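User: Hey, my collaborator sent me this sequence without any context and asked if I could get a structure. I don't really work with proteins. Can you help?
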Amino acid sequence: MLKKFGQFLFSWEYVAWLIAVLVIICLIVPILRIDVKEEEQWRFLSLVGVVFTLGVIAAFLSHHMR
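Assistant: No problem. I've predicted the 3D structure and written it out in structure-token form, which is a compact way to encode the shape of the chain:
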């Protein structure tokens, strides 16, 4: 399982997911007019990191459960 996950991290599919998530975040933030204050920035970035990590894990699991 870990070996498959390692292969997934270095695959083009992972890069595509990474780009897709970054583009979606860049589109959503201005639309929602999320005003991130300096002291809240680390909290916002950690939330984005958690959501992204869960998305990557979900993508990996859905890819390998087929």
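In plain terms: The chain has one domain: 2-64. You can pass these tokens on to your collaborator as they are.
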